[in-house]
Amino acid sequence: MKNLRTIYSLAKLTASEWIRLKFFHVILALGVLFMAFSHLLSSLTFSVQERLLYDFGLGALEMGLMMIAGLIGSHTIQREVDRKTMFLLLARPIPRAHVVLGSWGAIVILSLLFTAGFVTSLLLTAPADVPYTGVFISALCSFQKSCVVTAVAIAFGVMVRPIMALVASVCYWILCYSIVDVEFFVKKLEMDIVADAVHLFKKLLPEFYNYNWKSFYYTQNIPQWNEVGWVTLHNLAWAIVWLLIGSLVFRRKEIV
Amino acid sequence: MSILEVKGLNKKFRTDFYKKPTHILKDVSFTIEQGRFVGFIGPNGAGKSTTIKCLLEFIFPDSGEIKLFGKDLSLEQRARIGYLPERPFFQEFLTGIEFLKLHWDLGNMPRSKFEEKAKSILEEVKLTHAKDRKLKAYSKGMLQRIGIAQALICEPDFLILDEPMSGLDPDGRILVKQILRELKKKNMTVLMSSHLLEDVEELCDDLLIIHSGKIEHSGNVKDFKVNYATLEEAYTHFKLDWDRLQS
After folding, report:
1. CA-CA distance, B197 to B220, in Å (whole number)?
2. Antiparallel, parallel or unpaired: β B81-84 and B158-162
3. For residue range B57-79, what is the model confidence (pLDDT) as tens digits?
4. DSSP code of A104?
5. In chain B, positions 103-122, which contact chain A (CB-CB < 8 Å)?
6. Cα(A157)–Cα(A59) distance, rounded to whole angstroms?
7. Under a CB-based contact definition with an 8 Å cutoff, are residues B30 and B208 in contact?
């Protein structure tokens, strides 16, 4: 309970700090723009209005979530270090892992707020016959992916400068989708060592490509609940792995 | 009883990876006894803040031993320390009371006792009137006082103050000094790093002088200035002798 209390306090502090910053407001504004754009695009078509709305809308949701995960995740801890507010936090009897978990918790809260706001607006403004379950599962899946990328961004954020961490986390997110394409092209090259290396590398990435549900198709052909359960556990495990890496690195990081 | 024992602390820093590491702390050893108010002085870059950062585990020494309350450094031991950093960098969007609540929660103190404790500590640092004001609206002196309040709120047994009076106007200094005098009356063990020798002379029982990463003097303030009128005079002579020895 004591551990939860400190993590909760740190998460609340970080979340309330980022909510006040223009950085987060810009992401919110972009979210609204994405939403407006998806409606605009769908209204320009005759027969595939719904398809375009959900394809673009759900894609935009994931983009917004990744911006929150990448931008805030990579900066959150280093920002406290640079502003020297970290000294007071670390002077308290809290394990450094709590700082990592608190930062992650804060961004998860922000992502959850963004997801809830985005999905509610999308559904409220959508035409009749809204596929509630499909949209909910798709949004849940994107939210979970953002939780993994947040953990990645935080872990890189305690190792390198924030801008490098941002680049690394965006590359990681893209690779999680495109590693199968890379594998395919490497096979064509017929270079066994490179193919083995890519195959091994594939094992080090979550399988985002296996559950890319952010499209109109999946709002109509809803994934099975056991698939949703597997995806949840898979993402949770990857988030834990990256949080552990981040905590281990931050544990020995010197705050000068 | 020793509150803090530091033995053979060494720390090297590498500013760039292709440069040779600089030896910042060289075999630093000292002891702080319970109830003593210790002044930690030395020129800029001598290693005062680095020593303090080692004590609080912000950085990790290359070698040496730190014993706090007779035990190795751990979270349990660190829970008994209150700390005020060199310059008050706080979460400025918080109000005074929210800031104290944050540190109360991080210190894992009982929730039910916060109101009572916050009230008394705010009275002690004379900030009751400003408790609901955001920290960004605080003056430098008020920030220093709320910093002292956060250092004291979790009822520490040992206080580390890193230049508590730097950059304060005369009124701010008087108020902070009053608070420190009260702490001294309560027999609190304090390690205070400072450049202001008159404050050290007035408040401190013991003195630690660090130069180029080495503890050059450790002992009673009165003994140190026994042949001189003021601590400043004694320190000036000490420094001249030290420079002569070095050259």
Report:
1. 14
2. parallel
3. 999 999 999 999 999 988 888 89
4. H
5. 103, 105-108
6. 26
7. yes
With CB atoms and an 8 Å threshold, state whether B85 touches A84.
Answer: yes
Give the closest residue to B13 by CA, choosing from B2, B23, B28, B5. Answer: B23
Rounded Cα distance between B188 and B109, Å, is 20
Instruction: State the pairing for strand pair B63-68/B214-220.
Output: unpaired
What is the ipTM metric for this complex? 0.89
Structure tokens at A247: 């905590």
Q: What is the pTM of this model?
A: 0.91
Which amino acid type is present at position A123? L
Does A20 contact B at CB distance below 8 Å? yes
CB of B81 closer than 8 Å to CB of B159: yes
Q: Taking CB atoms and an 8 Å cutoff, what residues of chain B touch A9?
A: 102, 105-106
Q: What percent of chain B has pLDDT over 70?
A: 100
> Using an 8 Å Cβ cutoff, are B168 and B179 in contact?
no
Residue B149 pLDDT: 92
Q: How far apart are CA A229 and CA B86, in angstroms?
A: 50
Domain residues of chain A, as ranges? Answer: 2-251
Distance CA B145, CA B165 (A): 10
- Helix/strand/coil for B189: strand
